[in-house]
Amino acid sequence: MTSIDAVRKFAQQVYTMDGLEIGTPVIIEEITFVPILKKEIPKEDRDYITLSEAIAEGLCKIIDKGTEVSHILFINLGEIPILVEEGEIFLGHGTQDRICVGTILVQPGEQVEIPVKCVHAPHHLQSGAAFGYGGKCSRKMLNELRTMKYLSAAGRTPVSRISQSRVWMKVREETELEHGITDPTQYTQAVRLRRQKAKRRSVQLKLPDNTIGIVVVGADGNVKAMEIHRSPHNFKVRKEGLLESLEHADIWKKTGKGPFPKAQEKAKALFKGLSEIEEGKEALQQVEIEGLVVNLSGISGEVLTTKFYSTICPKCNKPKMRQKVCPHCGFKEEVLEELAFMSMA
Q1: CA pair distance 95, 124, nearest whole angstrom
Q2: Is 300 within 8 Å of 286 (Cβ atoms)?
Q3: Residues 6+ away with beta carbon under 8 Å from 209
Q4: What is the pLDDT of residues 195-213, one digit of tens each?
Q5: CB-based burial label for 111 (10 Å; 0-12, 13-18, 19+)
Q6: Dihedral angle sign, alpha carbons of residues 52, 53, 56, 61
Q7: How many domains, the chain?
Q8: Residue 258 φ/ψ region, left for φ over 0, alpha for ψ in the -120 to 50 degree band, beta for the rest
Q9: Within a 10 A sphere around the Cβ of 80, how many other Cβ atoms?
Q10: What share of the chain in percent tops pLDDT 90?
């Protein structure tokens, strides 16, 4: 279960510049990207891999149950945890495309049922069908999911029970605004169009090598997005996904105001708020998934913390699959709960 103390500790480290720091802003058009930097890059830079990496490297198996829409089976075939982010799209091979409604870290060898919603309304289900990677949904869709998840967390109901009809309404709302969509019920068409734009902006967004996250501030001075990963490697892999999710937002419309001049101060204030966050008031535990759903001063999001065990036993120096107990010598590794992923908008 995600530790609120670990969230507060991480935010305090950023706010006080203790091992983490707020970097020099990068401006694209009128949008300011404030990097969050890790002063010491961890030795093991891949203590988890992203969903897109896992699918590309054949390290997971994703199966349609065929009996219901709201869950799919996910099996980690590798020796490293796999992070599945809220808002990522599972591209159905002969079955419905789904959107992941919560962030989940799947451990090596583990099989889990991931809560999802359909984003391709008319298609039939097919038992045993596989899935590919379909990209990241928009921030608007994320905000819709988070609003529903916050209400479900407050009512202690599973995240898989959030409204399917509201998701479909959001799909149609977004696809009808995109040019070049042939099927307004197929969300992945809109995602693919946004991905092309995101790739172009990604080339412009040059960040330091030790960047683990970013705070996005619009010309109006409001935080439009924030995404943090545990390591520079993981953030680098997911940078385009973040930009992809921003492409449907209104922030790219020119205002003539120019970029907000105090974006770093905005980022600092955000982390100060997170360092003082209260569980049960601003952060709620969710049912079915381990992360916290957050609602802080109008900014909503999801946070996941976990314990990261090493790949080499500290006692016998033999390899182990990031387990607490070494299968060779029985040594029990003690580690602290740390931030794995944070996303807000």
Answers
A1: 6
A2: no
A3: 41, 232
A4: 988 999 999 999 999 999 9
A5: exposed
A6: negative
A7: 1
A8: left
A9: 18
A10: 81
Kindly report which listed range (75-79, 122-126, 174-178, 191-195) carries the lowest average pLDDT score: 122-126
Strand, coil or helix: what is 290? coil
The Cα–Cα gap between 31 and 258 comes to: 8
Handedness of CA 199, 203, 205, 208 (dihedral sign): positive
In whole angstroms, give the CA distance from residue 216 to residue 226: 6
Torsion of CA 145, 147, 148, 149, to 10 degrees: 80
pLDDT at residue 207, as a whole number: 96
Residue 319 · residue 311 · CB < 8 Å: yes
Separation of alpha carbons 9 and 117, rounded Å: 33
In which order are the strands placed within the sheet that holds 82-84? 49-50, 82-84, 104-106
Name the residue with tokens 């892999």. Answer: 237
Q: Domain range for residue 71?
A: 4-326+333-344
Distance, in Å, from the CA atom of 11 to the CA atom of 267, rounded to the nearest integer, reads 11
Continuous H helices in 138-287: 139-154, 164-175, 187-204, 232-246, 263-275
Give me the numbers of helices (H) and strands (E) for the chain, helices first please. Answer: 7, 18
Q: Which residue from 239, 314, 312 is spatially nearest to 79, judged by alpha carbons?
A: 312
pTM given for the model:
0.93
Tokens 């042939």 belong to residue: 182
